[in-house]
Amino acid sequence: MKTMQARDAKARFSELLEAANSGEATTITRHGVRVAVLMPVEEADKIYQPRKKTIGQVLLEYPGGIDLESLRDHTPPREIDL
């Protein structure tokens, strides 16, 4: 993995994109401190997989569970004159 200062990375951004496209990651530093990594999308997808859950999955995973039947209103509906 290459390391590059932020000002150099800014000046050579197109080169860094090409390197990432060919599979090479680059660490970007500012004043000698690592602040970012430019990496190929495939590598980032392995690390940061989106977690898409349905509302049903979220409710099922709720600690202690949720008893939806106890929340339901069992009173008869009111009559409506039309």
Task: Describe what is shown at a glance.
The chain is an alpha+beta fold and 82 residues long. It has helices spanning 6-11, 13-21, 41-47, 55-60, 68-71; strands spanning 2-5, 26-30, 33-38. The protein is rod-shaped and about 75 Å long.
Low-confidence regions: none
Number of helical regions: 5
Overall pLDDT metric:
89
What topology, given as strand order, has the largest sheet? 1-2-3
Shape: rod-shaped
Q: Give the termini distance in whole angstroms.
A: 75 Å
Largest sheet features:
3 strands, mixed
Question: SSE string, helix = H, strand = E?
Answer: EHHEEHHH
The count of strands amounts to 3
How much helicity do the residues have?
25-40%
Overall SS class: alpha+beta
Fraction in beta strands? 15-25%
Oligomerization status of the protein chains: single chain
| Rg computed from alpha carbons, rounded to a whole number of angstroms | 26 Å
